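Re-run with default settings, no changes from the original entry. Doing this only to confirm the output is reproducible before filing.
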Amino acid sequence: DALPICNILAFEAFEQTLYGIYLKLGWPPDKPENVTCMVFNIEKLTCTWNPGRPTIQSTLFSLRTRWPHDENPFNCHANFSNSSCTIPAPNFQFYINTEIWVEAENVFGRAESDHLTLDPINIVKPNPPTILNLICTPELPNSIRIEWVPPLNSQVMPLKYLIRYRNSSTNEWSQVPPEDTLASKLSFTLQGLQPYTEYIISLCCMLSHGDGFWSDWSAEKSVVTNEALPVKGPDVWREILRADSDVSRRVRLKWKELERSEASGLVLGYNVTIKPKLTPSEETFKTNETHVDVTLTQDSYVVTVTAINGVGESPKSNLIIPSSTLKGLPPVKDMKALAKNNQLWVQWTPPSGSVKGYIVEWCVKSETVGCTIEWQKEPSTSQGCFLRGNIQERKLYAIKVYPLYKQGDRKST
């Protein structure tokens, strides 16, 4: 606003304005564009729009709604900065076509948006469902039953749902196929899950007729599935510590801890059986450790290790310790190691005989004190692998590859 004025002051008189021009600067409102409306749950109808360029002057926006044959539209007012207005229930009705538009007005003029005609039931965005229970049972360790409460009366407004879930160790969600949750129900059973695993679950919903908007995702809830039998036995290996005499040797039996997905529960211990191949006697014991030192003769032995959790025992893992006099088992050929993708890669040519798998052993050869042996098992089809462990730069490693045969193992050359 600007007011140029000219004043005159007479002796012992008041200051008076002789002449002035009052100017108002600004623009008339643009036509409101992109009017978009949404019903949140069934509680309020909110519309937003693009008000156009700033008008400088105070501009009043009015959201108007009118039913057929209604001469008195309902009004909701907003200013330029808001560009939205909300009409609370019951000032709008479902299953009735409603005319909606926006008017803008200031001292310079008036503008009106295009008119929308819609049924508010077709623009509903429900609140998220509320997860009531996540149920796991010992009989179904691969399943979770989800029970929830709908945000609306599902008898009056049937809903359909989306269910997403993920293992807590990953950020990637899996989703139940939409066709599996089309029916308006209040529970669902996830299947094909891993035992003894924490899962995070969330739901959303929309009206079952398919018009409107999906709700936001519900608050996440988590649960741990029940234990099941371990799916495999631990990988087993041995280390010949020393020969005590011509008839005995000190051997360290060792095995890997199972991965969580393999253990299917909390591992409580291990059953170990040591049996000479040529005699019927055997020794069985239980331990909580992942290695045990034993004294054996120079004969061949079968070692069996199983993992135990709260449900039961894993399948057996067998290791043949060959007699010290066993000869003739072919080694791997052309073994080499090289740096690859910031890791240490070991490769070899398989031996001519049929193998059951491979054991790869390594340790830091440059250490002045004892060489701490690390190891891993590879399948019979493997011809190379990355070493899985704490591999350090600028260290010299001693690496061995043992092919595993039915009769025992043979070290690489």
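The two ends are 96 Å apart (CA to CA). The chain has a mean pLDDT of 89.
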